[in-house]
Design a protein that fits this description.
The chain has eight helices and seven strands. It is of the alpha/beta class. It has a single domain (7-216), classed as 3-Layer(aba) Sandwich (Rossmann fold).
Length: 219
């Protein structure tokens, strides 16, 4: 079944957004549903998602990908003005969280950074199908991407917080923000670190507690 007609999954995603006082336009939601269908249904680029997650892609992966927008979107919008923010996602894989974020925040310039050739080809195809002019696919490791002076760098469940922060730091501008999505259990040791901000959240029909973890680059 297409996510464009999967009312149960649509309702779970919209309920999650509504609980956080976020409302997306019909056009934005339709693009998110199209993206979900492309990830789940496209086979020529290898197995992009596990079978158990294919049936809950909106409520699990799209909802999770939108968490930085849910908790930081207004702050980012207030910052933009005439200065277009630049955001790179390390290890973008099949496009989560960077594609949903690019769909939700068209005024931010996104870079999906991923070294694996098949994933790069898939993301390039999706970018063209969805006409995402604010997203560039970069087929390299982040360290060799040449991206610097970035306002935001994100990753989703890539490595430990410490390793991901270390990789990101060189590419962030002074005052930029590192953003990562982790299982809360994996970052609980950071609770008393004054440099780190943790926002706990739960996803629809998931028992696990997750965390949006951010750290500013003030060095």
């Amino acid at each position: 079944m297409s996510y464009r007609t999967n009312k149960a999954q649509q309702d779970l995603l919209n309920q999650f957004l509504a609980e956080h006082s976020v409302q997306l336009s019909e056009d934005t939601l339709d693009k998110l549903y199209q993206f979900a269908d492309l990830v789940v249904d496209t086979k020529e680029f290898g197995n992009l998602i596990s079978a158990k997650d294919a049936g809950k892609f909106l409520s699990r992966h799209i909802a999770d990908s939108l968490v930085p927008f849910v908790f930081m979107g207004k702050e980012i919008s207030d910052q933009i003005g005439n200065d277009k923010k630049r955001w790179a996602d390390m290890g973008a894989g099949a496009g989560c969280p960077v594609f949903p974020l690019a769909i939700a925040m068209p005024n931010v310039q996104f870079y999906a950074v991923e070294p694996r050739h098949m994933r790069v080809n898939f993301m390039q195809m999706v970018k063209e199908k969805l006409h995402l002019d604010n997203l560039t696919v970069v087929g390299k490791r982040f360290e060799t991407s040449g991206l610097t002076d970035l306002d935001f760098i994100s990753c989703r469940a890539l490595s430990t917080f410490e390793n991901d922060w270390e990789r990101a730091q060189a590419g962030l501008k002074k005052g930029g923000t590192f953003v990562t999505l982790k299982s809360y259990n994996n970052i609980v040791h950071l609770e008393n670190d004054p440099k780190v901000h943790i926002q706990k959240y739960v996803l629809p029909e998931e028992e696990q507690v997750y965390a949006l973890v951010t750290r500013g680059n003030n060095e």
